[in-house]
Amino acid sequence: MLTVQQLADKLGITPQxxxxxxxxxLANELKPFVVEVKRGKRTVKMIEPGGxxxxxxxxxxxxxxxxxxxxxxxxxQLISLLEETIDVLRGQLxxxxxxxxxxxxxxxxxxxxxxxxxxxxxxxxxxNKNNQILLHRQQDQSKMIESKDKKxxxxxxxxxxxx
Length: 163
Known about the structure:
Elements lengths: L1 E2 H8 L3 H11 L1 H4 L3 E6 L2 E6 L1 H12 L11 H78 L4 H5 L5
Antiparallel strand pairs: 1-3, 2-3
């Protein structure tokens, strides 16, 4: 008996594929060959040799693909249809190319706007800095003028009545 993992390794498929065969695709056929065995706290599915053969045979069966036989007229119709489809797709590609060009132009325009805004922000910051310097100078000048206007006397220093 083999575990699902051992069977998968032997057949070159995934354990999920084996479980799919056991639980869905070949459930009725594999029922007599699948045994559940306790290993510690887990229950593991084991497959007997007969189940191995069933699964292996199911993997070897070719997938039935529909075969389309066309006569000469049918071939021409198919070719015409494919050529029309190609023309439609080329038209769609041309439209997409135009849309991409328009989008690139929009992006270029936005990049220029962003650059202009950046320049404006820089100049505004410089103006703000200059305004702050001017304000400080004005405040300093007004303090200097006030201090010049006041005359200092010892009398004012020691008088009890201050204004």
